[in-house]
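[Meeting: bench + compute handoff]

Bench side (C.D.) handed over the final construct sequence. Compute side (W.E.) agreed to return the predicted structure before the next meeting so the bench team could plan truncations. Sequence as handed over:
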Amino acid sequence: MSSSFDSAYQTIAELVNDFKTNEQHYLNPTYSEADVRNDFINKFFIALGWDVRHDIQKNPYEQEVRVEKPVLIAKAQKRADYSFSIAPNFRTVKFFVEAKKPAHALENKDYYFQTARYGWNASTPVAVLTDFEEFHIIDCRFRPNINDALNYKLEKFLYTDYTDKEKFAKIYYLFSREAVVDNSIEKYAESLPKPRGKKAKGLKAVAQTIDESFLEELDEIRNNLAKSFKKNNTHLSSEELTEATQRTIDRLVFIKFLEDKLIEPEHYVSQFSNPPSLPPFNKGRGGAGSAWEKFIRASRTLDAKYNGVVFKKSLIDTRNIIEPDDKTFSAICEELSHENTPYNFDAIPIHILGSIYERFLGKVVNATDKRVTIEEKPEVRKAGGVYYTPQYIVNYIVDNTIGNLIEGKTPKEIAKMRFADIACGSGSFLITVFERLLDYHKRWYVNNPEQAKKDGCILIEGSYHLSLKQKTKILLNNIYGVDIDQQAVEVTQLSLYLKLLEDETTATANDSWVMFKEQLLPDLNKNIVCGNSLIGTDILNPSFALPFGKGEGWVGFDELKLKPMDFETVFPEVMNPSTGSGGGFDAIVGNPPWIDIKGINPVEVKYYFENFNSTSNRMNIYATFFEKALKLLSKVGCLGYIVPNSILYQSSYKELRRIILDELYVKNIIRLPDNVFKNVKAESVVLIISQSETKFIECLIYDRKGSIDIIENKSVKEIKKLNQNKWKSHELLTFDIFSNEDIINLIAKIEKDKIPLEEICDFSLGITPYDKYRGHSKKLIEDREFHSTVKKNKSFKELLAGGDVERYFVEWGGKEYLSYGDWLGAPREIRFFTLPRILVRQIVSGNPLRIYAGYTQEELYNTQTIFNILVKHNSNFNTKIILAIMNSSLINFYHAYKYLDLSKNLFQKILIQNCKKFPIPKVELNNEGAVVSIIEVVDQILAAKKQLQQATTEGDKNYLNRKCEILDKQIDELVYNLYGLTEEEIKIVEGK
């Protein structure tokens, strides 16, 4: 299928000659769109390397070019004539082409609007409008507006331009297959200037993506509906208003989907807003002919055909609620359905609808007696927003879990497998799981036509397709989800229904309805469940009551909000050890909630401590979801999660790492850039965990400041193959993805036969000045009464700031005093502020990262930005030996690879518990001359540092800085010798 520029140019030059010779014929109105497509446009794109006629890509599910037959519905064509994608991502459209017959002038706002709408809804930046006589490149980055449509033209070519090699090259190197494979469309879009002047004014519709625009639309609909419902139903609670608006919106979205996908021939939504052109719905409550009346009647009609949660009778169908104002509801329906609406649900990928709903569900209706507001849920507010997982990450996780598990299996074997997301949100992961299953079955049946016929596939245009009944069976057999939010559960079901019906037509849907005499949509209430994945019904035991609360008998939580649930009860067939792969899910995927345990109800926290080994006081709840998911896996199961990268290093997650290392196998680790979540900076990692043994861990490390839209080896900063057994010897069981074999061996050598620093020294955290649990009032704390900028009395002591501690040297900056005494929150022992000691600044900084350990004999006090080290009185070690080791390149190397996230430069800390473990050689003052040498060099450094503080000229400062650098290197050499490092090992430490 490859096509060189020269051969493409030659072929298209021949087409130009043909058109030119017979131009009068081709411009005649009788020469149709179908004719020009067949005679010219198909051949044009074949010359650009595309398999337009499917001469090579025979499998209908694996074709890069999708060619539509013209279908006009109410004057509006619902699908673009051509869509182009790149294997294997056949559902990801790179660009659309809209064809017209040459007799029509292309510079027509309806044509431009139509073409731009295809691209914008599918999130493709540009599209093509052509009749071969002309070739227009249309900008699809902006929300389409019919009145501005003619501003969308980026470039225009006449057919005579195709023979100008320079002009043709612009087309070829943008739209040829070889160019598109090389991301030409994306590069072109990035190079486009932002509109200015008149064009910018015309495009005030605005550089909004489809997800941003439709989310804004849904927010506005929710706000208007909620206010209208509340105005007419003052008794409705916030929860009832949230449900009423959500159910109304779900139905409107679903009906529009059915219409735009050509599954439903009726145009219901437009009838809700306009005088009905068809016979009116039956009269009933709300007044005959009102927009709401039509909506409710249509819901009942569609429920009879489709079933499912969408049209299930709910609050809005009862007499307990008065309909919203007709004007308000009519306007909503008109905006969604008018001829020039920017939204085309046939072109919007289901996963984009999922991303919209995920963010939409982050807010709820809050009603008081006087007003209605839309507010973020508390948990969303605490988390800093909705962490919606980008589709490329969802794809990677699903492909490397479910994709690997089903490869090579038959539909019969796959039918026994169970896949879940236990915090499913709007269902983005489950939609992709379902899509992968459907795609795999389609490919399998194309290659096994005899079995396809036996299993009930339907024959369409010579190819076997999955029937609706088969797709339903796959959905019910394989897909499971849980979420604590009922609205999220309903949206997940809605999303799965949309995916189920995605490739259906009016004919196939009606055939299924008539043939099987049953409703088209299955009941998913046993598959997608509202409940608490972490907390079982045993929490209802009175033993979980806490000694505080709201009066006698209060057990510390609202049971209806907590929604305790037992997986064995809710999913008995999945969890039964005698079924499937021994009970449990074969794969669990997702993005679990990222919520700090401090913000969770104490009763729930108590439950976590009693039921999950990974629970600690300084953890995020994602770890509890991780452990629960591991417990729910079958004997051959695997897990794929995106979580904060704290799981790799932080001591709070040591027990979770222990569970993984003791019982499972890490298959993949992806260290992602920090910007994967839109508008939220988060350090995150993808982990793929398996019950099956793996030879090594494949680890991809991306640049933290980079930007990606696909996880693949060619764009990574570093690729590693790791052995998890190496991590088991680490005291914190750290998942060390940065160290190589040489570094791991060197770390082991540094630790061998050494003494932990805590056996040589006493440690103390800095002072905690204020503590409400010590009786300090809110005012005392806010006024910082123990702090002062002047020495008020003898109790006020010189207080160090973190920046007052340099390497080797400490000097008070003169900023503050602290009143020291028993009245402080945690005053610590006075010896840590008066005896000769080492002070360690908590923040490490520099490139490479360095520990700042200073020495002082003065009476100086410090808070917790600094911690304090005193050599034990019965120890033979000299404080200055410890000081030299702490500041040496060797111990900084050790600390970095042992305890830090090396992908970060800012806000890294040395923790007191880690410092206590530093390995110190068994040396005494009278043992080695090297020890004496170290002390002498340290004394020289301290003297030079003191001189440097007093120096006034640049020349003196430069000289003393150079002297300190030379002495620093001498310390490094002496410490290397102390630890017995070879020349090669020194090179590793120094990054050479």
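W.E. noted at the follow-up: Residues 97 and 128 are 5 Å apart (CA to CA). C.D. will use this when planning the next construct.
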